[in-house]
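On clarity, I found the account of how folds are encoded harder to follow than it need be. What matters is that the chain and its backbone geometry are given together, residue for residue. For the editor and my fellow referees, an illustration may be useful. For illustration, here is how one protein appears when written out as sequence plus structure tokens:

___
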Amino acid sequence: MPQQAVIDESGVREVLGRALQRTRVMAPVRRGRTAFDFQWVEDPAEVALTYSRTVLPPKKAFLPPREALLEFRRSPEPTSTPSIEDEPFVLFGVHPCDLTAIGQLDWAMGRRHEVADPHYLARRRAATIAAVDCLPDEYCFCTSVGSCETREGADLFFTPVDGGYLVDVLTAKGEALVEGACGLREPTRAELAVAESFPDEKVRRVTAGIDAECNELPDLLDSRYDSEVWERTAERCYSCGTCTDVCPTCFCFDVNDAVNLPLVTGTRRREYDSCQFLDFALVAGPHNFRPERADRVRHRWFRKFVYLLREHGMPFCVGCGRCSQACTAGISLTDVINAVVAEAREGAAA
């Protein structure tokens, strides 16, 4: 089939329906009046093709909030059986910022250390990803962090055009998903022009942003390590961990064992953890590396824009705006970082 084709909305839902006949599909669905969430769907009609952002990112398809890692037996001989999920599935409706986040998780969970995470990688290999381009709202700042036009990691990429979508077939997996779909046709010159101009329209509509280039941020933030901005932000913060729960690039987790009576068998589980929790940095002694809320607040910004940026070469923030929208205290990530950047520049100019 051609590497580019046009399909209307009914054709997209037909593709989803055919996929559901042979595999699982996770896609965005409406929750309540205004919220959306990635869920396992049973009916193509459930799928939201247009939305700003989901509550939780599609990260949950590869790194669930809670999961079993292994089943174990303590006696007569200690044994364990890993719980690896590798059943194929389709992840549909991923936005470019979340595609960027998945790529960063691929590095963190698969390439950052000598020992890769087999649970994450099994799900990642099992997935076929269909991405859909989007338009920003007041929380988005993808243009500041380089995630506006990402296609890497997608098998299919849908760009809205008049009356439907321009479909870019990027991999063999993507081709298999749409092959034989009804309504596929060659794009017109006008449709190609609309798709080509779509990224420019995104840039035009972005209103939030970071007042510095990404490569400037480590030095700027380092110079204001003791800024009062962290204290002022901490006075508002509840340390609830909502920001890290909804973040598409956070990958910290806690591990615990649940032992069944009579204490012979059990399950090892992991679940999301948050650097904003008081006991996150608690170690033996007892000693806490970040006992004050301001320490934990600062750590989050430094983790995104200093430590991992220097290690990975790009910020571990994709500008999706979830943390700012979901924050129970109304704290804006961009407002905080811009306040620090302004302080740093004033200090350098003095």
Residues 36 and 51 are 7 Å apart (CA to CA). The chain is about 35% helix and 20% strand. The mean pLDDT is 96. The longest helix spans residues 293-312.
